[in-house]
Amino acid sequence: MSRVLVVDDDVMLLKMAEQLLKAEYTVMLAKSGWEAISCVTNGPRPDIILLDIDMPVMDGYATLAKLQELDPDIPVIFLTGLTETEYELKGLTSGAVDYITKPFVKEILLARVKVHLNVSKKIKNMDPEKVESLSTRLNDTEMRIAKLVAQGYTNAEIAEQLHYSYNYVKKVTSVIFNKLGISRRNELREFLM
Question: What is the average pLDDT across 27-51?
Answer without folding.
Answer: 95
